[in-house]
Amino acid sequence: PPEPPANESSAASSKSAGSDAVLDDADSRKARQLNIAASFSKLCRALWCGAFASVSPAGILTAVGRYAAGSAFEGGQEQQDAQEFLLFLLDGMHEDLNRRSTGKAFESSLASLEVNSVESTAPGQQQHQEDLEASLAWRVHRQTNDSIVVDLFQGQLKSTLTCQHCQHSSVTYEAFMYCSVPVVDNFDCSLNDCLEAFLQPEQLTGACQWLCPACHSRQDATKQLDVWRLPPCLLVHLKRFCGYDGGKKISSLVKFPVAGLDLDRFCRNQALKSNRRVYNLYGVCNHYGRADCGHYTAACLNAPTNQWHCFDDDQVSKIEPDNVVSAAAYILFYRQQS
């Protein structure tokens, strides 16, 4: 969609990819019960009209609080986790804008498609079978989930569980809204290191054993995640808070590219590799301080001017791209190169 003129707002906000489509979709769908999309539309128009030095997001906070009834966001003004807020925001907007909300839904058991392993005689046949299974799971998902939020932000993961006793495996194709990746250690690392750690096999033992359908009992198992389908806009959450209550923060510097994030190496889907997905950064949510006491800022790209800005409460300042990467980065916002 077309961006607004460069002189419309020099430092109001970074316009996220596809936001024009979100605004149009929100305007065309009136009187939803929670109406998070309408509040978001109003906020974006205020940010981009050029008439205000700063804009309070009180309306969208109230709407998300109503949607997340019973959570810490309901009616509260205290600081909460930005990643959790983003999840509630996107989920609420999806529900408001879901084009399938009045349609006949598939059985909920088909929301993610599970496929028991079969013997494959040739790698090419196995790849073809996987393509068919993944495509079917995606079509089933889109039968009940069809919104601009899904169009822009949702991808697909392949999850394979393998029993360590009998080697039986089961494959599930699941939609994802963002990648929540571990910060690998207390030393400086790269985003590629975090993505590799996210895709490492996980051992399911003890209380986490898998109920193997072939053994009819709980067994040690291996869980393997693979990226199968990538969205146009990729959200990456850096898991900086650990422990049962999230009380410990990992403050390592994660080096991530501002432009040219090539995810080809992380994709198992051969069809996707033939159409390489390279991403550019357009926003960063930063967290400073401890888990129980901190401060959020944002670094956002104004696409029409190609200028980065730092948003710190009601203060906005220009920054250089080199200053976007810092140890405070918490959520990364990427969009696919056109």
TrEMBL record:
Region spans: Disordered: 1-24
Catalytic activity as recorded in UniProt: Thiol-dependent hydrolysis of ester, thioester, amide, peptide and isopeptide bonds formed by the C-terminal Gly of ubiquitin (a 76-residue protein attached to proteins as an intracellular targeting signal)
GO molecular function: cysteine-type deubiquitinase activity
Listed GO biological process terms: protein deubiquitination
Superkingdom of source: Eukaryota
PROSITE patterns named in the record: USP_2 (PS00973), USP_3 (PS50235)
Composition skew (Low complexity), residue ranges: 1-19
EC number: 3.4.19.12
Residue intervals of the USP domain: 1-337
Enzyme kind, highest EC tier: hydrolase
Pfam families according to UniProt: UCH
InterPro entries found in the cross-reference section: Papain-like_cys_pep_sf (IPR038765), Peptidase_C19_UCH (IPR001394), Ub_carboxyl-term_hydrolase (IPR050185), USP (IPR028889), USP_CS (IPR018200)
Name of the protein described by the UniProt record: ubiquitinyl hydrolase 1
